[in-house]
Amino acid sequence: MDELPPLPLSSGAGFATVAPQNAILDFFFPGISVLSTAVEKYLHIDLNIYIPLVMLLGGLVFVWRYFSDYVWDIVQSYLMSVVDIRVDDEIYNMVMAWVSKQRFSQGARRFVVNTNLNSRSWYLWRYREDEDDDDEEGANESGGQASWEKKKKRALAYTPTFGSHWFWYKGRLLMFRRTQNTQAAAFMTASEREEISISCFGRDPWVLKELLHEARQEYMKHDENKTIIYRGTTKSGSTEPVWQRCMARTSRPFSTVILNEKVKKDLIDDVTDYLDPATRRWYSNRGIPYRRGYLLFGPPGTGKSSISLALAGFFKMRIYIVSLSSVTSSEENLASLFSELPRRCVVLLEDIDTAGLTHTREDGNQVPNSDVAPNNTATPSKSRGQGNGNNNNNNTNNNQPIGRLSLSGLLNILDGVASQEGRVLIMTTNHLEKLDKALIRPGRVDMIVKFDLADAEMTAAIFRAIYAPLEGDKVRAFPSPAATTSSPGTSRALFKSRAGLPTAEEEKAREAEAAEAVRRKEEAIAKVDILSKEFASKIPAREFSPAEIQGFLLKHKRNPEKAVEGAEIWVADTRREKKKEQELKEAQAKREEEESMKKAQEEEGEGKKKKKKKGKKERRSNRKTSSTKSKSRKKDESGSEESSSDGESSSEAESSESESEREAAATKKRSRSAAAVAEEKTTAPAPAPAAEAEPVVVVVHPPPTFTVDTDKANGASLDAQKNTTPREADSGYGTP
Ligand SMILES: Nc1ncnc2c1ncn2[C@@H]1O[C@H](COP(=O)(O)OP(=O)(O)OP(=O)(O)O)[C@@H](O)[C@H]1O
């Protein structure tokens, strides 16, 4: 066996025998010379001849690593088109929905799985989670079970993981790139911290635009027959105002909002006319701002929001809702929100009465008599008059910002020079009388619609709307003789039992089944109609809102007879509850009033105390000066004493006499001034003057009867003060 050559790096002598290229290789790849010697010895392959090749490859890799990014940037900049997709825009959801359906996405070996593909970004938050897909499977099943079934059926979505992914679209090679933004703020959620882009070779990005358009179209299909609702709010973690997409609801048919038919028709006709492109041209030709405003007013729960949603759904417009009573509705925020509105949309301004007029929705109850009126003509003068009358009270501080929104600010936002044209503005209020005239003048509000508590007709209509069978409803058989005498061959059970019969008979049975369904439906409608009248007769007119009645009916949603039975009890219970609520409210208001009065009196008392203290100080300093004066006078007198010792006793007596005289005079003076103060107090509850706080006065002129009544004193009622001596006032305020 041949002897192995000495290890190249084991000793200084060994190192000297190693070829120079091996030494270099060993430097970069330790142990390579040992390996090459072993390979040469046992496999008879000389690795040394490949060394230049290996080094060249290594060099190339090294160079590529440094230059690939640079080269790629150049290729992207000059030879490719790229679209970056923002995660905080709705297009993110559209593109991701599209991508998840592509083959390259479904076949990816490394992927991200989601139950919800949408951006978790602030403004899309909750999207789809709260959609009412009640037309999907499982809707018939009851409550929680149905939603659980629905969740189980919801498909998982697979999207490619971070990195670059190539795919073909319309014969072009495109690249989908998903990267993580490491510089994004830490509070952002995972999906907010990612960035996506799609690129294609070539300088014309038409293929990318087509892809985006297709993604959008597919996505929009989902929103067909839905009313998409946005709410004005602030971005999470900041004060920046944004429109947050909060829901996509199945559009509400107009027929489900119970309102005077003429009013409804007028409203729809007016909006239809306004949205007509010819009207738009008409406005612009005449230089009139293309805007239309509607004011819906009435008590809570009478259908104002419902009709706004129905309008938006009917005209296939998005609805943007902002409540003026919310904390976010400052002037700047509102202006910013309005500037971001699309051209064609419905803007719903809720609680407009809070705009610089009042804080609460509870007080005030006057409503005018009209149902609907073009603002410039038919609004009843009574309502406007009353409104204005009240306004006089409320509007004294119209332009004072409440919260941070002033009336003038709101008016500017609504129709200032910078405000959007083309939108339908709907304002709602519970208190029309509290609105400023300027806010509802024609141009801002072109139609006023009144909503009222339910009358008998409305109550019956609500009943019918809830119980009358609709398309797709399972019709419950009402117990009636007709139902029991129906042909036995037409029953569902019999139909099932004949399932295997020849086609003609089966056809016949099916027709009979359909006829039976129609008969049942008609029967149910007739029955519900009778019950609705009975129900309406039990509910007092104009006492309950449609929302309240609907709430009660929903408790018996599958049993109209029970609803009719329980109506009277419900009326009595609700009245009792309302009364209790009213009493509680009044007691609360009274308590608050008393507390505020007490506070005011305490503050007044504090003021008096301070004045008294000040008076005392002044008097003390006065006394000091008078005592120094009398001392100097005494000095003079003692001087005269020295000159005639005979007259000592007489002069002493004189001085003591004059002293007592002086004191008596001072006391008289003080008591006179105290009396004057007491007299003064009978006309105005002014704080006690300094003299009355003088302890000497209390000692010299004690009141004949004296009771300490802190309540009275604190109350400082005029009558009490009339009869109080200074002492009483003192004790009342705690003077020792
Ligand atoms: N006229 C109506 N027709 C049909 N449903 C109504 C009507 N009024 C109220 N409802 C029902 O009552 C509920 C509340 O109605 P809605 O929110 O539209 O009232 P609102 O007048 O906007 O109340 P608020 O002033 O408190 O905002 C809804 O579920 C709606 O279906």
UniProtKB/TrEMBL annotation:
Ranges of biased composition (kind: Basic and acidic residues): 576-602
Region (Disordered): 359-401, 576-736
PANTHER family: BCS1 AAA-TYPE ATPASE
Protein name: Mitochondrial chaperone BCS1
Compositionally biased intervals (Acidic residues): 639-658
Coiled coil: 504-534
Polar residues biased stretches: 366-385
Keywords for this protein: ATP-binding, Coiled coil, Hydrolase, Membrane, Mitochondrion, Mitochondrion inner membrane, Nucleotide-binding, Transmembrane, Transmembrane helix
Biased composition (Low complexity): 389-399, 673-700
